[in-house]
Amino acid sequence: MSKNIQAIRGMNDCLPTQTPVWQKVESVLRDTVARYGYSEIRMPVVESTDLFKRSIGEVTDIVEKEMYTFDDRNGDSLTLRPEGTASCVRAGNQHGLLYNQQQRLWYMGPMFRHERPQKGRYRQFHQFGVEVFGMSEADIDAEVIAMTARFWQAFGIADKVTLELNSLGSNEDRAEYRQALVDFLKQHEASLDEDSKRRMETNPLRVLDTKNPDVQAVLVDAPKLSDYLSDDSKAHFSTLCERLDSLGIKYTVNERLVRGLDYYNRTVFEWVTDCLGAQGTVCAGGRYDGLVSQLGGKATPAVGFAMGLERLVLILETLELTQDIPGPVDVYIVVAGQEAEKQSLALAEKIRELLPNSRVQLNCGGGKFKKQLQKADKSGASLAVILGDDEVANGQVTVKYLREEKPQISIALTDLASALTSDS
């Protein structure tokens, strides 16, 4: 007997019992961005490897350790996308969407990183992202943050997440700060762990993001990025904070918040939660004004964010906020008798016409009456419509309420429309 083939480690199936939660999450996200006037863009999951090397940075963990990269039959180096921003910029450049234009875009789909799988973090994971192009002022930064705040309200977790905010300044600000930070770190090199020593040479700002408590103790006396910001960068950040204050969105300025990708400048932000145990990031983003030109386009200001859907689903499940999400069936049709079986398909189609927004499932393949009612209950349907030979003879159906303490009723087929509409 041949061995069963299993899914690749860290790449998970989403089973029928889980998909209603995912569909609800995706629906809320789609509906919310639509209310802000954003348009969907869909990019391929495979891109040229150079796209991510040039955007993310060759000395980042993603490029060095985590990307799924391979040569195709033509010898071209291809990569399964590890994030969406670079792909979105590439698409915008390629199709002439960005220069001297304003675009508000969103996308959703699978990303791929080869890292150690753990709860809420997988090798194939799903991201929802927003990217805005052509606007340089802080008001658009505030809008995308306000949009994320509206997500949390819609999901009922606004009190479970907190916003952290920082400014990385311009590229010139950051270059000056980078040198000051490296000088400081070299003075304390003996106290740094190996990861921080490596980052000191390749991407020193990432040292600020260390989780090592010994290195964190060293960084208490490190120079602060805010002391190196230009007047323009300070004014941009001050305006952003004023806008958020006017919206009543609470935040904490975290001067060690730098984000893991090389292309960020000025605004960076993260929504974090501790409801999964150790503090984790739910959503993160910021401004990346130099990335479009870095990838071959004309200089274009940009800002965006992304969130991992697995982690969001896990938060909702942990907080037991998925209990009221309906299953895949609203009405289940139970059939008893030969004549009823002949009429059942026509009845099902009629109910679908009467209730175009309802999900109607017909019992197929026969089965005892009691067993069919058990299937109806298991389906999650709120109503069971029973069609037996007696009902056929009398031109009736029986409606049984599965989620309410109401007596079942028998109604004429001619009254079915009004009866089901009132209960739907």
> Measured on Cα atoms, how large is the radius of gyration?
27 Å
Global structural class:
alpha+beta
Number of beta strands: 16
Q: The biggest beta sheet, please?
A: 8 strands, mixed
Amount of beta strand: 15-25%
Name the helicity range: 25-40%
Helix run count? 15
Provide a descriptive summary of the structure in words.
By secondary structure, the chain is of the alpha+beta class. The protein is 39% helix and 21% strand. The chain contains 15 helices and 16 strands. The strands form 3 sheets. Strands 1-5-6-11-10-9-7-8 form an 8-stranded mixed beta sheet. Strands 13-12-14-15-16 form a 5-stranded mixed beta sheet, sandwiched between helices. A hairpin with a 6-residue loop joins β9 and β10. α1 (19-35) runs antiparallel to α5 (138-155) and α5 (138-155) runs parallel beside α9. The chain is elongated, with a radius of gyration of 27 Å. It starts with 18 loop residues before the first helix and ends with a helix. The model has no long low-confidence stretch (mean pLDDT 89).
Quick synopsis:
This protein is an alpha+beta fold. Helices cover 39% and strands 21% of the residues.
